[in-house]
Amino acid sequence: MRFALALIPLLLAGNALAQEAAPAPAAVQPTNKDAMKNRSGLPVPRFASLRAGKAYMRAGPGKEYPVTWVYVRPGTPLEVVSEWNVWRKVKDADGTEGWMDRAMLSTDRTVQITKQTRELRARPDLSSPIVLRAEPGVVMRVTMCADRWCRVEGQGRSGYLLREQAFGVYPTETIG
Length: 176
Description:
This protein is mainly β.
C-alpha cells in the first residue's frame, strides 16, 4: 500500500526549497560508468520486497530529492530496475517508479495480486479445488515458482496461483 503526500501546498513549498538547496537532478544522475562501479553484483532487473513498515520513494537517488510516495506495507514487491550507490530505482505494481535506499528492501520474494480477485488452487492445475480467493492488492510470500504456477502463502494459508495473475515474478523465472 502506498500513500501520496497529502499536503500539496506544503509539498510544493518544500520542493522549491529543496531545489534551491540541492543540485539540479541532472547533475547527480549516475553515468553508466558510475552505475557499474557501485553495483551490488545482483542482477538488474530483479524483484525485491519492502523490508520496512514505512519507506519513502524519492524522485532521485539521494535524500535531497523530494519524497513522491510513502509505502507502509512490509512485503510489498518492488522491481529493482537500476542501482546507484546505496540507491535502488524501483517500480511498483502500478508502474510507479522512484528511488529507495537499499536498506528499505529485502531479498524476500513476494507477489501482489493484480487486477481482480484471483483463485488459489490446491495443486498447480486449473481443475484442482479452489482453496482461497485473494483480492487485488493482497501481498503473499512466494515459496516456489515453476512453469506457469507459483506457490504462495499468507496468514497461514497457501495455494497455487498462475504467475501472470500477480506482480512480483518474471514469466519464466524458477524460484525454490
